[in-house]
Amino acid sequence: MTHIDVLRVFCGPDGRHGNRLGVVRDGSRFPGDEARRALAARLGYSETVFVDDPERGLVDIWTPSLRLPFAGHPCVGAAWLLDVPELVTAAGVVAARQDGEFTWIEARPEWAPPRTLREFQDPDEVDRLPLPPPGEWVYAWAWSEEAAGRVRARAFPGRGDGVEEDEATGAAALLLTARLGRALNISQGRGSQLLTAPQRDGTVEVGGRVEPAGTVRP
């Protein structure tokens, strides 16, 4: 019987919160797009990762409704679990490293799926936002302390697949970092933390804490 690892990715400093991620270590047990889409929908996490080659770090990322060439919190979580120096995604090779309590990945902004980055003037505005109707993928953000690079954010996928709000979204953090051109310390959702740093070659590092959250059966 296959067991699926469940992780919380981008946990806060107290080890709480983070975005739940399912990782299927033996992806060969779910061959084909339909089997993977069905499992991702049944699990109901914002993303599920199928590991097709653990030594090479070859992964396949699914939302409950579609495949993603790249996504941030699945890559951070898979890198932590597999403890590999890189992951091979459909978008390209994602470098990975461990640094104390943080796991970091390095990726190109153009690999991230399109997001609408919507700036607000005050973190309280972000906190008060209602759930938008399905359609547009919105990353709402505001400076909480601009000089220190601190950001308050919430993410609304708008996919209509049951995931109304993402607790922590690495790809959107990557895009915001590329737009602003500076390192960020992002508080997202109920209390998740994402750290980012732009690199000289145009890539962006995204890092966070990962905690195990048990296993489930498919």
From TrEMBL:
GO terms for molecular function: catalytic activity. It holds the Pfam family PhzC-PhzF. InterPro entries: Phenazine_PhzF-like (IPR003719). It comes from the Bacteria. This is Phenazine biosynthesis protein PhzC/PhzF.
